[in-house]
Recover the amino acids of this structure.
């Protein structure tokens, strides 16, 4: 009985030590400060086992068809290379700054296709790996797995040729980010070079967002005005020119 009590006391002290360490910030949260070997191994083992258990029942379809490889290559190039790199690609700022470091899939590939499918679809908490299944159907995820299985054997030239022959970033209409071929049009819209809705361009106005002047009769050419954001005049006849010192509008 004393042995059980001693065990419970040790467990209680251990739990109190862990709780105290968490409360007082003993665990460093910065991505530039690696975990201790023991903590990292514990986290890695827990993650790997959790993924393995959940990927166990995943049914792997036939992989390796040319259409699958092209689709997977286009999406991988658009969505994954910043973290997981590509054949002939140097490490990026993001791939070097994340912790844990994302695996270099040009070397790893997808040795376990069921696990790769699960990770791509569901992501991994607190790792920077998104759950792509929120926007990609299973078909497109399997296409990416098929490509990952082949990528470690590709030269940079073969990879670039396959990406060029693909449909680019395309996974069934679930894309939420603009494609490269739409960026020029979007830049034009944001630059103010044209009207966004096909309507005639509005007349010139001041930069303060003020409403149009209200007059009983058509107003002549607008008089000079200041740039201080003064409210519009409301009167029957045009007011004399304002000075440029930001004085308030005339009261009529």
């Amino acid at each position: 009985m004393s042995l059980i009590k001693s065990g419970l006391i040790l467990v209680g002290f251990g739990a109190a030590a862990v709780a105290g360490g968490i409360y007082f910030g003993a665990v460093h949260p910065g991505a530039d400060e690696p975990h201790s070997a023991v903590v990292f191994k514990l986290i890695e083992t827990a993650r790997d086992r959790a993924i393995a258990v959940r990927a166990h029942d995943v049914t792997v379809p036939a992989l390796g068809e040319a259409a699958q490889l092209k689709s997977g290559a286009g999406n991988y190039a658009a969505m994954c290379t910043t973290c997981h790199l590509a054949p002939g690609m140097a490490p990026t700022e993001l791939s070097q700054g994340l912790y844990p470091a994302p695996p270099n899939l040009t070397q790893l590939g997808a040795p376990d296709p069921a696990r790769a499918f699960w990770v791509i679809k569901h992501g991994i908490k607190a790792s920077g790996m998104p759950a792509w299944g929120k926007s990609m159907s299973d078909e497109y995820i399997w296409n990416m797995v098929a490509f990952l299985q082949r990528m470690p054997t590709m030269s940079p030239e073969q990879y670039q040729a396959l990406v060029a022959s693909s449909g680019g970033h395309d996974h069934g209409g679930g894309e939420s980010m603009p494609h490269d071929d739409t960026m020029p049009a979007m830049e034009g819209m944001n630059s103010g070079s044209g009207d966004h809705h096909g309507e005639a361009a509005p007349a010139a106005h001041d930069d303060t967002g003020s409403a149009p002047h209200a007059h009983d009769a058509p107003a002549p050419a607008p008089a000079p005005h200041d740039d201080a954001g003064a409210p519009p005049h409301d009167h029957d006849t045009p007011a004399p020119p304002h000075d440029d010192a930001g004085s308030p509008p005339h009261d009529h």
Q: What stands out?
A: The CA atoms of residues 117 and 145 lie 6 Å apart.
